Amino acid sequence: MRAVDGTKRKDRRKKVLKQAKGYWGRRSTNNRIARNAVMKAGVYAYRDRKARKRDFRKLWIARISAAVREYDMNYSQFMHALKTLNIDLNRKVLSNMAIEDKESFASLAKKAKEAVA
After folding, report:
1. How many CB atoms lie within 10 A of CB 91?
2. What is the per-residue pLDDT for 13?
3. Helix, strand or coil for residue 58?
4. How far is the C-alpha of 41 from the C-alpha of 32, rounded, in Å?
5. Fold of 7-116
6. Interior angle at CA 59, CA 80 and CA 61, nearest 5
7. Cβ partners under 8 Å of residue 78, min gap 6
8. What are the sequence ranges of the domains in the chain?
9. Spatial distance between the Cα atoms of 53 and 50, rounded to a whole number of angstroms
10. Is the full-model pTM beyond 0.85?
11. Mean pLDDT in runs of 10 for the chain (117 residues)?
12. pLDDT value of position 53
């Protein structure tokens, strides 16, 4: 005799349906459709965890670039100047400085301007 309604099978289905909770229509109730939806969601989640890092880096660079233009420099000149001055601040920190601590960012930009000139 072959087991067809055992706990292993039920647990496997329950796990998928629990992951599909909140999905629209049969995607949340029907095992076969829910399994496909959960797989697809996992693919999107994996891809977008990588994309999020790229997106934030782009955002930080855009903010730094906008802040540095007030001091008649562009982003690449500014970053190069920081490298030559051995100032190791990452883009996230520089971006936050440009927004929240304008005085210290201004002093950094002036130092960088002198280094470029």
Report:
1. 17
2. 92
3. helix
4. 14
5. c-terminal domain of poly(a) binding protein (1.10.1900)
6. 5
7. 64, 68, 109, 112
8. 7-116
9. 6
10. no
11. 79 94 94 96 97 97 94 92 91 94 92 87
12. 97
